[in-house]
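Bench notes, afternoon.
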Amino acid sequence: MHLIEILLPVNDNAGRPFDAGKYAAVRQHLTERFGGLTAFTRSPAQGTTRDGGKTVHDDIVVFEVMTEKLDVSWWRSYRPQLEREFRQDAIVARASAMTLL
């Protein structure tokens, strides 16, 4: 079993919040493909990165899906779609092997 986490920004690069419809579309797409999704949207997490010598802070929401088989090529093609949709240089999508208890 694999857990895939997608870290999505709350705001665009100008600080404007994204419309809720963007997240709803991602939720629907992933739920249809994987049969379910968990979204952590109530209290955005805070991400910090270094970019060109300066520290950048982002508020993010986390979407998670679980799947038996990890289709790396599908995720590598889906991630750039999210980057375009959310106008980001990079969106983190990461997978971890897991055991259901």
